[in-house]
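Quarterly update, task 2.4: LLZGTKA7-bound model.
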Amino acid sequence: MQRPLIIALDFKDQQEVKEFLQHFQQEQLFVKVGMELFYQEGPEIISYLKKLGHNIFLDLKLHDIPNTVKQAMRGLAKLDVDIVNVHAAGGKKMMEAAIEGLEAGTQEGKKRPICIAVTQLTSTSQDMMHKELLINEDINNVVLHYAQMAKESGLDGVVCSTHEVETLNAKLGSSFMTVTPGIRMKEDSTDDQTRIASPDLARRLGSTAIVVGRSITKQDNPYEAYLKVKKAWEESEE
Ligand SMILES: O=c1ccn([C@@H]2O[C@H](COP(=O)(O)O)[C@@H](O)[C@H]2O)c(=O)[nH]1
């Protein structure tokens, strides 16, 4: 997989997705379907996007007891998406179960979807983590610890902020994926994100992929915004 720019399709239904994709003509995209869209449209939205030839990250962030996650992943594997995910906070047994479920649900001869774990949401600040989650460690150590657990559990990578990528690459190797949301151009509003970074910083620090939502989807000209983010993401390549 090249280092993709993944567009978060945070829309309320398929009609809104269709209107958004009209800006992109025939371009093959890497898109992310999250809870908002999937809970409204179900597996049908995945078939629709696959028929259009797009790559898909199904971002449902599973977090439950190991058996429930295993069975849920068995079902999700049948959707044949490229990437799925869990919350690392569910622990190692849950993450191992996720992989078992994916392997069990993947058609013979096919590769199972890539599975990554959310470490700490990019909306979480160090202050919030200390005061609300009562995790009194440095956020960088927490992200590293969760990423180490994910690797030991057989996962392929993590979701983290751009600011943790260098450490994770150094400690866990750059083939362990770092998928980074919380991406903003300098003129964009931060919204509910706290650990943000620009696309070019993400590239320079070694993110495997960036996830971009509102900086593209909420712009007057989404295609122009996409090209601008893509240029910033790709042009800082050494
Ligand atoms: O830690 C995380 C994990 C997932 N996300 C998701 O990425 C997009 C970001 O959207 P923006 O509009 O670019 O802020 C969104 O779908 C989140 O659910 C994340 O932001 N942080």
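Highlight for this quarter: The chain has one domain: 5-235.
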